[in-house]
Amino acid sequence: MDAMEQSHPNYFLVGLALIVLTVFEVAVVYTPQIPTLPALLVFGGAKALLIALYFMHLKFDRRVYAFLFSIGIALGLAMIGVLVMLIQSHT
Fold it and tell me: In the chain, what are the domain boundaries?
C-alpha cells in the first residue's frame, strides 16, 4: 500500500514561491524599464498555475486536467491583455 500512496506537496515551498512571485510583481510596477503588462500577465499566470496545481490538487490528478486548466488560464490572460491594450489605445 505504500507504493500507492502519494506524497503530500511541500506547501511551504509553494507558499514561498507565491510570495516571491508577488514581490516580483510589485517590483515590476516600480521599475520603469520593464514592460509592465506582459510581466504582470506572466507572473499572474504562474501564480494561478501554482495555485491550481497544488491547492486544487490538479498535480495529482490525470495530466489532461492540468493541461486543460492551463489552456484556459493562458487564453483568459491573453484575452485580458488584449482588452487592456485596446482600452489603453483608445484613451
Answer: 11-89
